[in-house]
Amino acid sequence: MPHNRTSILVWQIAILVVALSVWEWGFDLRKVAALKPLVPSILDPYFVSKPSAIWASFLKLGCFADKRGFAACFAANDNNLWLATLVTLKNMAWGFLFGTTSGVLAGLILGRSDFLSKIFEPYIVALNSIPRIALVPLIILMFGLGDMSKIVTAWIVVFFVVFFNTFEGTRSVDRDQIAASRLLGASEVTVLRTVVIPSALAWVFASLTPAVSFALIGVIVGEFIGAERGLGKLIIEAEARANAAEMMVAIFIMMIVGIILAFIVRRIQAYLLRWQPQFDQQAA
Questions:
Q1: Domain span at residue 79?
Q2: Which of 180, 190, 263, 275 could serve as 186's disulfide partner, Cβ 3.0–4.6 Å?
Q3: What is residue 204's three-state secondary structure?
Q4: Tell me, what CATH number does 129's domain have?
Q5: Co-location of 135 and 206 in the same domain
Q6: How many Cβ atoms sit within 10 Å of the Cβ of residue 171?
Q7: What pLDDT digit, counting tens, does each position of 56-115 carry?
Q8: Over the stretch 160-169, which tens digit does the pLDDT of each residue have?
Q9: Do residues 177 and 266 both lie within one domain?
Q10: Which of 161, 163, 143, 160 has its CA nearest to residue 152?
C-alpha cells in the first residue's frame, strides 16, 4: 500500500520533537523520586549536554554570538567551526575521490581477469584483514600532522569498501550478455563500456553511501590522533575541557554533512540508474 508523503513527514517531525523534548527536559524528571528509576543516566547533561546548550555553543563557535562581530571572531581563530568544517570536508572529499576511483578501477580490472584476481587475492585478503584504524598512527608518522595523512586515511578506508562491491558487481554480470556482445563483434573495451559497467553500477553505488561515512570517519579519527585543524581537533579540545555541548556541535555538523552527501549520492544514483524500475520514479 503506498504511503502518503505528508503523513511520513509528520511522523518524522513528531519523532524529532519528542526526542529533543526528552533530551532537553528528561533528566530533570529525576528530581521526582517516583520517576528517578525510569530516567536513564545517559541523559545527564554532563555527558550529552542539552539541545539548548548545544544551540548556544553553536552560536558561540559559529561566531554568531560574539560581541566583536562575525568577521573579527572568524579572523581571531584559525580553527573556528567553519574553517574546521571546511578542512575536514576538503580532506574527506579528496580521500573519497581517490578511494572511489582506485576502488572502482581495481574492482573492474580484477573482476574481469581471473588470472589477476587469483594472483592478488591473498594480498587483498591480508590487507583487508588489518583494521584500517590501526594504520592511522603509522600514516601520521609517515605523512605528518597535516592534511595529507587525513586524505590517505580516508582513501584506505574507502578503497576496500568500493573495491569489493565493484569486484562482485563485475563478477555478477550476465555472461550471456557478454557472449552476445562479442558475437556481434564488440571489442573488450566496448563490452566493458556497454555491458559490464552499466551492470555493475548498482553495486558500485551501493557502496558509495557507506563510503561517504567511512571517508568522514577516517578523517575524524586521523584528526583525533593528531591534527592542526579540523572538526576532530575541535572535539578533542572540547573533550579536554569536559565541554559536552561543544563536542555535540561538531558531531551534529558531521551528521548534517553526512546526510547532505548521502542525499547527493542517492540523487546521482537515481539519475544514472534511471533505466532500472526502482529508480525510474526517483529520477523523474
A1: 75-283
A2: 190
A3: helix
A4: 1.10.3720.10
A5: yes
A6: 15
A7: 999 988 888 777 888 888 887 777 889 999 999 999 999 999 999 999 999 888 887 888
A8: 899 988 888 8
A9: yes
A10: 143
Length of the chain (residues): 284
Residue 48 lies in a domain: no
pLDDT score of 282 more than 70: no
Specify burial of residue 165 (Cβ count, 10 A radius: 0-12, 13-18, 19+).
Answer: buried
**Shared-domain flag, residues 30 and 100:** no
Is 191 a member of any domain? yes
Structure-block grid coordinates of residue 51 = 539541545
Residue 227: count of CB within 10 angstroms of its CB: 26
Position 228 confidence tier, pLDDT thresholds 50, 70, 90: confident
Burial class from Cβ neighbours inside 10 Å (0-12, 13-18, 19+) for residue 33 reads: exposed
Return the amino acid letter for 8.
I
The answer to whether residues 105 and 22 belong to one domain is: no
| 39 and 131 fall within a common domain | no
Does 151 lie in the same domain as 242?
A: yes
Q: Which three cell numbers stand for residue 150?
A: 587525513
Check if the beta carbon of residue 162 is closer than 8 Å to that of residue 100.
Answer: yes
DSSP state of 2: P
Alpha carbon dihedral 122, 124, 129, 131, in 10-degree steps, equals 160
Domains in the chain, number: 2
